[in-house]
Write a structure and sequence with these properties.
The protein is built from seven helices and 15 strands. By secondary structure, the chain is an alpha+beta fold. Strands 7, 8, 9, 10, 11, 12, 13, 14 and 15 form a nine-stranded mixed β-sheet that branches. Strands 2-1-6-5-3-4 form a six-stranded antiparallel β-sheet. Strand 8 and strand 9 form a beta hairpin. The longest helix has 14 residues. The structure holds pyridoxal-5'-phosphate. The site of pyridoxal-5'-phosphate has 11 residues, from helix 6.
């Protein structure tokens, strides 16, 4: 597999990360993931804009990351991923420099990595729905930045796997926020609701696309807090994300939610998203 490493295209196995890299030492880095459908990248600009916002939030050296759209295209081509589905992963760190908490010397270059790989969609989850856990959110207060510091997300997702669940959704002060790598949606009396953009959730690209679908299709929607106690009144629950697309939630902690089958709004959103991506 050919990957992009600081301006060069190399066999992935030949890439060696410095032990002084700040991504390795401090998780001092950001990442993003773009989906490719039959070689066509979906919402690349939005993902790269988010990478740029993350870089500014972390006060990285001023950089325009839009060139990574071409990098992604070349990786799809070089790795013969133009037929079928793939993901492109981007990671940028503050670079490699002797370890010290404060920023490295200004001449330190950012580390930029990108790689494409085939992706098999989770069709069964999308069609049948999934079991989720609701877990107390132990993360820091800048969940709006897509940093590679994902330990809390890793542990919560593993807890889900060990409980025959596919995803854990974080709850803070009673508010249901987002999953470990997904945004959360609920439907109340035909109205689609997702938590508002705050520092406690990531502004997901799929979240934005789904809200756009609601607007276009005349489905009522809102960005409002969803409390755990509200879930009793919800007709449908969903998680959405680049890799999960629109995945219905049909069980919570193993207990069936409503009928235990995907609801009509989820199915409608799935269809609309499929039309946009395929
Ligand atoms: C914490 C978190 N929330 C939400 C999402 C969904 O974002 P997107 O739709 O841009 O993939 C992700 C994606 O990885 C995430 O890590």
């Amino acid at each position: 597999m050919i990957a992009y490493w600081n301006g060069r295209y190399l066999p992935k196995d030949e890439i060696a990360v410095s032990p002084d890299d700040r991504g390795f030492l401090f998780a001092d880095g950001i990442y993003d993931v773009v989906r490719a459908y039959e070689g066509r990248l979906f919402e690349t600009r939005a993902h790269l804009d988010r990478l740029g916002r993350g870089a500014r939030a972390l006060r990285f050296k001023e950089t325009d990351f839009l060139y990574l759209a071409d990098v992604a295209g070349r990786l799809i081509e070089e790795n013969k991923l133009a037929a079928g589905e793939a993901t492109v992963y981007f990671q940028v760190t503050r670079g490699a420099a002797p370890r010290t908490h404060c920023f490295p010397p200004p001449e330190t270059g950012l580390t930029v990595y990108a790689a494409a790989r085939p992706f098999a969609p989770h069709r069964e989850d999308i069609e049948n729905g999934i079991n989720i856990l609701l877990l107390s959110d132990p993360r820091w207060a800048r969940c709006d930045i897509k940093t590679v510091g994902l330990t809390a997300n890793v542990l919560a997702n593993q807890t889900a796997r060990e409980s025959q669940a596919r995803e854990s959704v974080f709850v803070r002060d009673g508010a249901v926020l987002e999953g470990t790598h997904t945004n959360f949606f609920a439907v109340f009396a035909g109205r689609v609701v997702t938590p508002p953009l705050t520092n406690y959730i990531l502004g997901g690209i799929t979240r934005r696309v789904v809200l756009g679908i609601c607007r276009e299709h005349g489905i009522p929607f809102g960005e409002e807090p969803i409390f755990e106690a509200d879930l009793e009144r919800a007709d449908e629950l969903m998680i959405v994300g680049t890799t999960t697309e629109v995945t219905p939630v049909v069980r919570i902690h193993g207990r069936p939610f409503r009928s235990g089958a995907p609801g009509p709004v989820a199915v409608r959103l799935q269809k609309a998203l499929r039309e946009m991506t395929r």
